Structure formats: C-alpha cells, structure tokens
C-alpha cells in the first residue's frame, strides 16, 4: 500500500510540474501575441504614413 501511495505522490508531482510548464508556455504565447499585435499596429501606421507621402508627391 505504501508503494502505491509513493507512486501516486510521484505521479501527482509530475502532473504539477507539467501543469506549471503548460501555464508558462501559455503565458509566453500570450505575451508573444501581444507583441505581434503591437507590431501589426506599428506597421499599419507606417504603411498609412507611406501612402500619405506617396499621395503628396503625386
């Protein structure tokens, strides 16, 4: 019975570790998504400015 309890404890510890890894990866993905959204907004602004400059030269 003691062996089974030790195995369960070990398995629970492994699951906790995997859960933490998954949470960390999710947080990293969310951060990268925010970074990509910021870059997209920056590029859109640059594109609009570029189009304005072209329109002024025409």
TrEMBL record:
Residues 1-56 form a coiled coil. Keywords: Coiled coil. This is Uncharacterized protein. It comes from gut metagenome. The lineage of its organism: unclassified sequences, metagenomes, organismal metagenomes.
